[in-house]
Every structure is written in C-alpha cells, then in structure tokens.
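yo

u said u wanted the structure for the complex thing, so here. seqs first:
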Amino acid sequence: MNDKAHKIAYAVFALAVILLGWQVDNQYYLQLMIFIGLNTLLALSLNMLMGYAGQISLGHAAFYGIGAYVTAILTTTYQVAPVLALPAAVGTAMLVAWIVGIPTLRLSGYYLGMGTLGFGMIVHIVLREWSSVTGGASGFVGIPPLEIGLVVFASGKNYFFLVWAVVLLCLIMCRRIIDSRVGRALRSIHDGEKAAAAVGVDTKKLKLQVFVFSAGMAALAGFLYAHLVYFISPGTFSFVASIRIVTMVVIGGMASIWGALLGASLLTLLPEWLHAFSEFEMVVYGLILMGVMIFLPRGLTRGVLDVYERYRKNHDR
Amino acid sequence: MLLSRKCRFGALAIAILLAGALIFTPGVFAESHQDAYKIGGIFSVTGPASFLGDPEKKSMELAIEEINAAGGVDGRMLEPVIYDTEGDPSKTVMAVGKLINKDRVTAIIGPSRTPTTLAVTPMVKRAKLPFISCAAGNKIVDPVKPWVFKTAQSDVQAVASIYEHIQQRDIQKVGIITVSNSFGESGKEQLLAQAGDFGITVVSSQSFGASDTDMTAQLTKIRQEKPGAIICWGTNPGPAVVAKNAKQLGIEIPLYQSHGVASPKFIDLAGDAAEGIFLPTGKILVADLLADDDPQKQVLTDYINAYESKYNETVSGFGGYAYDAVHLLARAMEGTNGDKAKIRKNLETLKNYVGISGVFNFSKTDHNGLDPSAFVMVKIKDGKWELVE
Amino acid sequence: MQEILQYLFSGLTNGAIYAVIALGFSMLYSSTELINFAHGEFVMLGALCMVTLAVNLGFPLIPAFFLSICAVAAAGLLFERLAIRPVRHPEPIVLIIITVGASIFLRGVGMLIWGKDAHSMPPFSQHPPLDVAGARLLIQSIWILIIVAALTAALQMFYRRTLTGKAMTACAVSKKAAWIVGIPTKWMVMLAFGLSTGMGAVAGAIIAPITMSSYDMGTMLGLKGFCAAMLGGLGSLWGAILGGFLLGILEALGVGYISSGLKDATAFVLLLLVLYVRPQGIIGAGEVKRF
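structre next:
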C-alpha cells in the first residue's frame, strides 16, 4: 500500500514535470523552474543530513561550491569533457566531506553547527583568495555548456528536463535509503544517538556516510549550476547561501522529502514575488521567515498537515 | 497510515507547485504598450554595492524622463523596467531572464558590479540583445563581445593615471592595499601588471575585507617595506578606514585612492584623514572647477542640477554610468524601429558622444569608448576636491 | 619590535570588541541555551544609534552612549517577547531560523532608517595617539579597553553579589530546578535577552568612532564574536573575554606574518582546531550538548 502510494506520487510528480516542460515555452519560467530544481537538490541533500540523521550543517554551500568549481576548472582550464568532470566534481566533494567529516561529526548541536560553519567560511575564503586557479573574487568565466554524447544541454527545455530528471532520481534514491535499514538507523540517531549506539547502530560510520552522500548530492547541484550559468563566483557559495539552504529545509519541513521540494520552491519564488516591495523586501522576507517558524515550527508540510488534522477532527466530531 | 498521509502530502505539494506555476504563466503573452520601447535596468539597489546601484537606478529614471520629455525616440516613449540584483549573480541571472523573456525589453542597462555583469553576458549573447554594463572591471570588454558595451571607466585607465602621477613625483616604490572583492581584485591585477611600464615596483600587496573595521595591521606591514606611496583600492567604507588608520599611524607618505571612492561621502566619512589624498575620478566631482571650454562642462552641470533637484541629495560619481548608458542607447536607437542588431551596430559606430564619464568613441575593438582623458587627478584639500596638474 | 607592538595594539582593540560581542552570545546561551544569530545586527543598531544620537542630534557622549544601549536593549526585549516567547516547541533549529529571520529583518530596518551609506563619528576624546616605542596607540583604544574592563567587573559583581545575578546563574545551571525554587525564569530569560543585546549595543557604540558604521556591518562582527565565544568556551564569562582577545591578537599577527587575504580564515581555522581538540573551549567545562 505504502509502496504503491509512493509510486503514484512519483508518477504524478513525473507527469507534472513533463507537463510543465512541455507546456511552458517562456525561457524565464523555465529558468525559474530550473533554479527550483537545483535548490530542491540542495535542500534534499541537507534534509538527509539534518532531517533524518539530525546533524545540522551551516556550511553546506561549501560542497555546492566545490562541485561547481571543480567542474569549472576541469572543463575550462583543462578542457575535460563535462561528462568526465561530473564524477570528479562529485568525488572531490565527497572526499573533502569524508576528510572533514571524521573530526567534525564527533561534535553535536551548536558545536557541530559552528564546525560546519567554520568549514564553509574557509572554503569560501579559499575560493576567493586562490585567484590563480579559481579566478578569485571576480569569478570564473567561460564555462562550457554541458554535452552528453551528441546532445548539448544549452539552457531552456533541455536543461529543464535534465535537472528535473536528476531531481526525480535523487528523490527516489533518498526515499529508498530512508525506507531501508540504513534509513531506520539514521532516524534512530536523530531520536537519540546514545540509544541508537546501544542497540548496535554504528552511529559514527553511519553519520559519516550520510554526510558524504549529502555532500555528493550538493556537489551535483553545483555541477549543474556551473553548466547552466557558465559563470561562477565565490559569493554564490557563501555563508548566506548555506543559511538559505538550511532555511529551505526547515521551512519546507524537516524529515520530509516533499518538504525539501516545497521549501526550495517557496524560497526561490519568494524573492521574485517580493520584488514589488522593493526597499521593504528584506523586512518582509525576515518577517515571513520568523512568522512561519513561530506559527508552524515543524515547517510548512507538517504544519499544514497539523492544521488539516485538527480540522478533520473537529469535522468528524 | 502515517506514510500514506505523507504521500497525500506529496500530491498536495505538487498541486501547490503546479498551481503556483500556472498562476504566473498567463502573464507571458501579455505585452503592454506596443508603442513604447521597454528598457531593462538591473542594478544592485540594495546589498553591499547599493552605493553604486542606488544612484544608477535614479539616474536611469532621470535620463529616461528627460528623453521622454523631449519626445522620446522617434516619437516613441521609453519605459524603464528595473530590477534589484542585490549584487548576487544568481539573482542577476534571474532578473535578466525575466527582462529578456517576460518583459521583452529592447536593451538592458546595468548591472553595477563586475561578477554580476560577467554572469549574464552569456545570456545576452544568446538573446542577441544590446547590453550596456555600468561596472568597472576590464574583463567585461576585454575580449570584446559583440553585444556587450560598458560606460564606466575601466580600472586600466584609473591605474594608468595614478601611476603617471606617481612617476612624475619620482616615486619608485609603492605599497598597495586592496579590498578582497571583485573591484579590489581587478584593481590589484592592473596595479601589478602596469607597475613595470612606469618603472614602479610594488613592494607590498595587502588586502582587507569589505566590512573590516580596522586596517592598522595591514598598513603597519606596508610601512615596514618603506614604500614612497600607498595606493588603496576599494569602495566605501573600507578606504575611509584605511585613510583614518594611516593618519593615526602617522604615515607621512602620499596616499592614493581609487575612483571607487569618488563621492563626497568619502570626505564625509574620512573627515580630517581625507586631507591630502589623491585620487583619479571622472570629471563629475570637479565639474565647477573645469575650464569653461571643457566639452563636458555643460553636460555635467545639467546632470548635476537635474539629479540634485529631483532627488534632493548630492550627486555621486556613479550614477553617471547609467545616465550615459541611457542616452547612448537612445541615440543608437534612433531610426532603428527597435531592431536590436541595428541598435548594436549603431552603438559600435557611435563617435564623439559627450557624456558624464567622458567622451565616448566606440569602435569594433573598443566597447568602452573612453580614453585616459576621462580621468582627472584630484586632491582633497580643506574638505574639498581640487584639480591637480 | 615596533611592528609587533603595533600588531598587538591593533589586536587588543579588535579583540576587546570581539570580547564584548562574545560576552553577549555567551550570556544568552548560558541562561537560555539559545544562539542568537541576530546578535551582530544588535551591534549594528548600537553603532548606528550612537552615531545618530551623538552626531546628528548633538547629544553629549555619555547620555548618547547610555541611551543607545537602552534603546537597543529595549529592542532586544521586544524581540524576545514577540518572536521567541510565542514559540511553542522551542527546538534549537527553529530558534536558529527565527533569529536568522530576525537578523534579515533588522538589517532591512537598519537600511530603511539609516540608508545604505556608511556613517562615521569622531572619537570619544580628541587627543593625538600615544607613541609607545614607535607604535601608535589610539586614545579610543584605551577607552575601549577601559569600558570592557569596567563591563567585565560589573558583570562579575552582578553574577556573584546580587540576588538577580545568582538567580540567573541558577537558571543557567538548570532552568527547571530554578523554577522549582521560585525563581521567575521567564523574567530571567527576558533579562538575559536585555543584557545580551545591551552588550551588543555597547560593542557597537564603542566601535563606531574607530570605523564606519552601516546597516550591513553586523554579520561579520557577529560571526567573529561567535567564534570568540566558542574559542573561549560557550557560556563562560572569562572564556568570552579570553576568546575575544585571543582572536583579535592572532588575527593581527596573522596579517603581519602570514597573509592579509587570509585574515578572516584565521578566526575559522582557529575555531575548527579548538572544536576538534577541545570542543568545550579553552575555559568552558560544560558538557558538549546536542540538539
């Protein structure tokens, strides 16, 4: 039953993607949805770490940046084909995550948040200062479009379908992990690390694994971003970006795969809608963030669900 | 039970997403004012570069008002569509996508910063749309890209005029201190690259963060190398802190600033410490000191008066980039009936346009169109700008 | 020798400011277990209030100083009442996002009130810098150090000698136990907020004369203060002071002997090292907690 319901959800989702891609011709809306897709990947990757394993990261944009910069440097400076740069980009991010993760994941709570924040800042500073390789603060220009075989993924519909296909795959992959034994073990860490360890979950190894996995997924988003915009600069991968990813996860709803999608969509669209407020944009944005967290502290998906539950209870009565 | 509820949720989320997407879809084909030319503007009106974006936005609106009051372009009005980039490349990409595909503008002016400009050049190239940037970085027009122009003076010319001045004063060793963002980095590159041409050696190169509160450590380090002058490359407020710190440390050697601080605000911020500082600037800051036969004098006075009476604030050295861009564009649009390729062609062959930032002479190989005479060296004396030479 | 001394002076001045910001973080954390990501914004508010009162409205220094602190502390109380207390399930991550939202909101408000330009003000007293063996020490730096010392002494007195202070320490040890013995914990939380944001305002007010204040100055200062608090040991008064000065001095030495481009990295590398080797901080002894 559950399995079937999931399959239906994915089918509906895939259908929605195809329908949107087929119907929408305007480049602007396609672009907007591509960005939503990229942000969904980021939110999903962090959600695995934060929502399911309960490990906070305030430096997730670092992996996003590593993915983008590795492919940029390989494909532009060294003329490597983008397809070959993909494993390198994802692999580098995973390797870095593994190295950093061993000491960092021993921490927890605010200390873990602080550790990841520090790591994120350091990566940002390296991207900015190592200008002979990364192009420095002015950014990296001339990244080639993505080519897979004979197909060139220039922007627009091509890219839309590519990004959303990746999103769908990642959604399914995450769902599989969550429903597996590993997923249950992860949730047990979230609920109580000591208890989990006591019943025989290798918490250390598992946390590291999910951290590395999550870093790889963020790097994938970075790879796609670099080949979409053809230009990257360190500002895109700063502390503010990390916080934005955390916000997407929390607003959407932690420990919810669809929450990541919702959070990413909302936080991508919100600034577009808030343009109307011009000078007041920051004030309104801040108020919305605070408001959602005060009134729906479990995020929008869970929050709306709670409201719905309450309504149904009253109704049944 | 719980899980299936989650699925329902998934469906709901999709429905919301779909609905959201559909709500804004109808706007796509609605094209307002068939008779007006839409001109896109993207400036960092808020965010760290707002000191650029804010006057640029206002100047663009001012220029368009002027043109419309004079009857528009070939009788058709100009209509500005301006978005805020917040200095963020991703937001700029979104804004340009919106301008090109939703607002369907004829041309785009802005953005204010080099990274945001570089982020969108591939898009305008694809869309084949005339694009006039207001950022300083030389990377924008070197190499020349067919659709990309810029009106702000390049750091190449700024560095050249500083070094010329230093050379005249017989100073061989300089120390440089640059802000660690794209503006400072581009300046640093030029400072290091051109030093040799003027027989100058850079003995120490330091940097500071855009929001650092204290630069005494960097200045101490520079002082150790005993340079004959210090060149600071940054935008407010950092350079004002550098000026203050230099004075506090009792550093007696001349301090040069970049055109990035060319606004009365700098004197305001640095106070006494601004005394005796040299900097290259467009002529706007010293418009009233210019000789009467200077070709730019009239244009500058008119712009300053119009800006100050409309917005009730002192003019800065930056709004002029957007003001020039609009007027250049309007001139290039004459007789094209909105044909973008023709506008581009006209821009490329535009000569002797007297603007705020200098006299523009575009060509196939020069999409900035300014020569070093666009800059004058000024010195701050008694809290006022003073022409040097 | 002259250089080292100059780096030390520079480091001490910045360190003192980091220390005050770190104090604000630490105080709040010890009695509420909350990290206020908007703390840097309260520093910004303090600095800009000070500039407005002292320069634009022409208040004498001392009233301007205390008025701006009171105003910012009031804003902090309001923030606690309106945004923190209504949260029904105060999980740390929820509180983090709320404070992040508040920091964006406050930055927006700062921009609306004070505009996008930076503001400056003259130092507290107009004397030329002192010359110590060739290195220059600003009078403003001395002011800053005096104020920080006074503040530390006052806090120490408050915690050790007054009933309210002891009650707050009790809250920090165990909120429930404190409540059981009749301490009004709600008031204590409010007081902690007021003190913490007031501390931020002090940092802003003393930094305003040596630098330029603008609506976006808070983020980096907040992060550095956070680093300092972590370095010394989150929740510890002396830890915050030690962490602040250590960070300031190492940063200045880093500029002098390593590279100025990596100045900001100094803080974060140091932070990682401390977290890996001694996560409770140099002084802190508390158990490292998780969410």
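Chain A has a mean pLDDT of 88. Strands of chain A lie at 146-148, 151-153.
cya
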